[in-house]
Prior knowledge:
The chain has helices spanning 4-27, 54-60, 90-107, 140-144, 157-162, 169-175; strands spanning 66-73, 76-83, 113-122, 125-135, 166-167.
Amino acid sequence: MKVAKPLLAACLTAIAVMLIWGMLPLSDWEHPARQSEVAVFRSTPAVKLTNNNLVDVLIGAQLNERLEKAEWRSGVLSVDMKVNAKEGRPSAWFGDAAKLIRVSFAQLENVRRVLIRIVEEREEGSVLLAAVDVRKTDGWLIREMDELAHADPVHDELWRSRLRVSFTSAWEALFGPPAGFSVHPAAGARP
């Protein structure tokens, strides 16, 4: 009998503890005001681009196309954008370029130059279609950054010049020569 009472007390204590532990998760359901989501990762916008935050910045740009390669060196951001010329649209590709330019010069303070190569993956390897070269010293960045989202460098010579877009013969074979309008009147033209 001397053993039975302590054994019974230990069993009852163990059962009571298990019941309390089992009810702990349920106790928060009765108090919805205390429930809130807890951020596991806190996203703070980068101010300076580094090799440590390069991937985070590029993911934050929310591009539609895949990036094949990205390099950050001495104030120059170089990106190779992999596109599918059969299914993709050049306007979307240059929309992604505009996003990269905006992030680089409106958000980041240490980017001096952005080089974007638009490449198509083919069976024989990657083929360069077009290249974009924008520099922080470009005067239009300050005045007309908002218009960049609506730019059409394939058809508009002004934006083609501002973005320093170069089209390759592979581009011309797929889409024809870039042609378009200019805001500058042709020589000898009368209004």
